[in-house]
Design brief:
mainly alpha, 1% strand, 296 residues, Farnesyl Diphosphate Synthase
């Protein structure tokens, strides 16, 4: 079995081809919108959410072609959220994944339509492709992503984030915000990957969901630490943006050392949630390690 880095690199490389195939081609009308969609999705990011879907798919011996679609749907939702988050009406950022943000490279109206179109395409893929032999189960997958993306998930977390500028949140309030804003889509990636293969029992699904919740929170805690310590060139986005905008973070609330300790505790909790799955959960464990221990 290949080591984690070899496995991750192979999936990341192959998944780029999947995204290139599923996104509208740039010569298809309207060309400018489709070019901007591809600009915003392709050749950027670590693809953590798709990797989580692939790892969960391996746990249940899923057909990788099915997981490709589930992973693409999650990644398109994530990309749309970044395009919209970077716009002047929200975080007003000019750099994402080491290149100009969509509204800078194109314009604000195009960026708005890019986000709308990526969101629609994500659900089109889930509805258009057979991801489960059980149609009821596949319908639940569509609902799962919808909830994770909407006002009770990612979009709701962003609304809380925007409303928290200049405020001092308690730790439970900050956790609640990021369980929605960052964690919901990470949990959905794990769950969707797992739904593409052999059916798991309720207790097993609950453990996987708890794993996703823990790594989702840990991802944000580590992001806050990196944002306070790394430079813009390393991050590929504007460093220190949250501090500049007076947004509450785990670093501003707890300090760097306590934030690192929190990430380590979430890491242990995530691994504990996988304790009953044995060797089949190896890649999920390795992804938990990567999320918490990454340096950039």
């Amino acid at each position: 079995m290949p080591d984690f880095q070899t496995w991750a690199n192979a999936h990341q490389h192959r998944f780029e081809d999947v995204l290139r195939r599923l996104l509208p081609q740039p010569d298809t009308l309207p060309q400018r919108l489709h070019a901007a969609m591809r600009y915003s999705v392709l050749e950027g990011g670590k693809r953590v959410r798709p990797l989580l879907a692939f790892a969960a798919g391996e746990l249940v011996d899923a057909d990788i072609a099915r997981v490709d679609i589930a992973a693409a749907a999650v990644e398109l939702i994530h990309a749309y959220s970044l395009v919209h988050d970077d716009m002047p009406c929200m975080d007003n950022d000019v750099l994402r994944r080491g290149k100009p943000t969509c509204h800078v490279e194109y314009d604000e109206a195009t960026a708005l339509l890019v986000g709308d179109s990526l969101q629609s395409l994500a659900f089109q893929l889930l509805a258009d492709q057979q991801l489960s032999d059980n149609p009821v189960r596949q319908l639940e997958m569509v609902k799962l992503l919808a909830v994770a993306s909407g006002s009770r998930g990612m979009a709701g977390g962003q609304a809380i984030d925007l409303g928290s500028v200049g405020k001092q949140l308690s730790l439970p309030e900050l956790e609640s915000m990021h369980i929605h804003k960052t964690g919901a889509l990470i949990r959905a990636a794990v769950q969707l990957g797992a739904q593409c293969g052999a059916a798991l029992g309720e207790a097993q699904l609950n453990r996987l969901d708890h794993f996703g919740k823990c790594v989702g929170l840990a991802f944000q805690v580590v992001d806050d630490v990196l944002d306070s310590e790394a430079d813009t060139a390393t991050l590929g986005k504007t460093a220190g943006k949250d501090a500049e905008q007076d947004k509450p973070t785990y670093v501003t609330l707890l300090g760097v050392q306590a934030a690192r300790k929190m990430a380590a505790e979430l890491h242990r909790d995530a691994l504990d949630a996988l304790s009953g799955f044995g060797a089949d959960a190896r890649r999920l464990r390795e992804l938990a390690d990567f999320i918490v221990l990454r340096k950039f």
